[in-house]
Amino acid sequence: MELNEKDIVVTSGGVEVPNEPAPKQKKHRKRHLLNIVIVLLIAALVIFFSLKNDFNAVITSIASANVSYLVITFMMAIAIFLIDGLILYILARLYTTRYSIGQGMANGMIGVFYNDVTPSSSGGQFMQAYTFKKQGIELSSAASILVMHFLIYQTVLVLYGIVALIAKLPLFLGLNPVADFGAFKLTLIPLSIVGFAINFTVIATIILLSYSKWMHTFVINSVVAIGYKMKLIKHPDATKQTWQAQIENFRIELRRLQSNIPVTLLLGVLFFIKLTIFYSIPYIIGLALKAQMTETYYDTVFLSAYLQMMTNMVPLPGASGFSEYFFTQVFVRIYGSGAVTTAAQLIWRSATFYLGLIVGGFVTAFYRSSPKEIVPAKSDRKTFIELQKSTYEMRKKTSDTMFQTSQLSRKDIEQKMKKVRRDLFGVQRRKAQRTAKKVKQQPGFPVSESEEVVPTPLDTSETHKGEE
């Protein structure tokens, strides 16, 4: 979406942001309402077909489930939302001390809701940026927060996928086929590889283009030109501008993360914990349903990682329909029984998707800082790119300042560490102190004013007594 002058308003911070007339707001609301209806219709169809053949067995499995493990399942889902809110809170505190953890939780739930109701989770970032603005954070800072959030999350997600592939490759190769057409069988393996390749390519390309000027120039010029000749790119100049803006934005945010290594590591750990909790839910559901699981806890965790690789590329709100089907195909070998697998799928989807959709919907509807009045005509990733472009100069300036400051402090630390390494056990330091002490004890050694004997409080009080 291109922003023109009549779609621009100036905020108190001097940052230009898109505004929209009332008719477009109505279209925007109708589009999200339509997406919600689509999600609910698909959910109804999935439940119908899931229960069609084994209704009694599935209901019996759910009814006889261990309530304690079911409670733990939904508590784990809530913990995921809380961790994401904590991550947003930590990032926001880099820019202001007047941001509470409750605001971070609310912003996180708004992001969950809009990600669930937009195709490929494309609307969450832009709506979170507007929520940050209404919470008192400048749009330039909000854009930085969300780009850093994306970079760290994507990095941890890819690293988790690499570990999953290496640790459980035989399990991965033994996944059941999705569809059997006689001589042709469509298996989960190619889908997992494609999903992993997309995630890996995204973060690897971002890092490579941000740090390699040669690759940056090659992609901006050569790749766009080739795409235009092959009629894959219709508007090469606009595409170059968009890609240039994206690369520059990622570059300055990577630099900002490099300037805050302790915070970056902390956020990486939190994302790891968040993903581990999310991937552990199918195992806890298996315990709740008293399933005779054939694999270990770690197997279910890594299979969940494979599942996310596949569902990430589905261009439907919440990957509705596909998530349920892939879950059944991936975990049927774990739970053993088809009825237990269907029951597990219904519980899993309720905890990991519909709970967030419902809670996020309530937060979006009733939270006073949710984006109700100022909403974009098209809240997708292109709109978020436009927001990044409009706030680029301000964010670059703060990033450069932060990086230079961190470099100065880092040089001081390196110099101190060099001194420590040269005299690891303090032998030279103690020797120098003894030499200096002997020199001072020699007769005629000049005493500076700072080294003159200063009366102690006791001496001072006695002196005053004598004068009295």
Descriptors for this entry?
two-stranded antiparallel ribbon; 468 residues
Give a written overview of the molecule.
The structure is a single chain. This protein has two domains: 5-184 and 253-390, no CATH class; 392-440. The longest helix is centred in the N-terminal third of the chain and has 31 residues, at 22-52. α6 (139-167) crosses α11 and α11 (261-288) packs across α12. With 468 residues, the chain is mainly α. The chain contains 18 helices and four strands. The chain has a two-stranded antiparallel ribbon with strand order 1-2. It has a two-stranded antiparallel sheet with strand order 3-4. A hairpin with a 2-residue loop joins β3 (177-181) and β4. Mean pLDDT is 74; it is low at 1-22, 374-380, 405-410 and 450-468. It starts with 7 loop residues before the first strand and ends with a helix.
Topology:
Layout: E1 8-10, E2 16-18, H1 22-52, H2 55-63, H3 67-92, H4 101-117, H5 124-134, H6 139-167, H7 169-173, E3 177-181, E4 184-187, H8 188-211, H9 213-229, H10 236-259, H11 261-288, H12 297-311, H13 322-335, H14 338-366, H15 381-390, H16 392-422, H17 427-441, H18 457-467
Helix pairs in contact: 2-14, 3-4, 3-6, 3-11, 3-14, 4-5, 4-14, 5-6, 6-8, 6-10, 6-11, 6-12, 6-15, 8-9, 8-10, 8-12, 9-10, 10-16, 11-12, 11-14, 12-13, 13-14
